[in-house]
Write a structure and sequence with these properties.
Strand order of the largest sheet: 1-2-3
Low-confidence stretches: none
Number of strands: 3
Largest sheet: 3 strands, antiparallel
Strand content: 25-35%
Radius of gyration: 14 Å
């Protein structure tokens, strides 16, 4: 797995039947991915769950991949 990068910004646009996400890091790297409507719905649900849960104290960083 690659090293964690700090997010600078996210751009989203429609690309045919998909949604294109462009994730730009503070280091200047950009990752573009295509997602389905269902995948975006799941992402929004996960982010809402995180934002609505109490903040955890402890080591920061992304969760382990499944």
């Amino acid at each position: 797995m690659s090293q964690t990068q700090k997010l600078a910004r996210i751009l989203a646009s429609r690309s045919g039947g998909h949604i294109e996400l462009a994730l730009a890091t503070e280091g200047g790297q950009t990752l573009k991915v295509l997602a389905t409507q269902d995948q975006i719905d799941m992402l929004v649900d996960e982010l809402e769950d995180i934002l609505n849960s109490p903040a955890e104290e402890g080591p920061s960083g992304p969760p382990e991949a499944a």
